[in-house]
Request: fold
Amino acid sequence: MTELRPETPASASVQPVKQQPARVSLGLATGGELGRATVSRPRQMVVTSGLARVFLVGAVAGVLLLGDLLEAALLGFYGGEAVALLYLAAEELRSEATRGGKLRGRRRLS
Reply:
């Protein structure tokens, strides 16, 4: 038996989709965006180190405030955070759908 294959014209070629480079961290993403916005290097360093300090203070405060909670209360806290994250993701998808599927510089695959 012969295998049936769909015929494709010789001029048809598959174009690879250019992907954005992965953002490694909030600091690198912020530095990159500030660099595109022509912010001076010292100001970039101040903003990035400020974000790192806010993250560190938040982590320490979270350990101090939530470290002694009972397991049930901690699970409730994490559940609320998961609901908030799901809401943000759903809101982004909704706003993308109302814009016609154009998501910040990404091409649709259709």
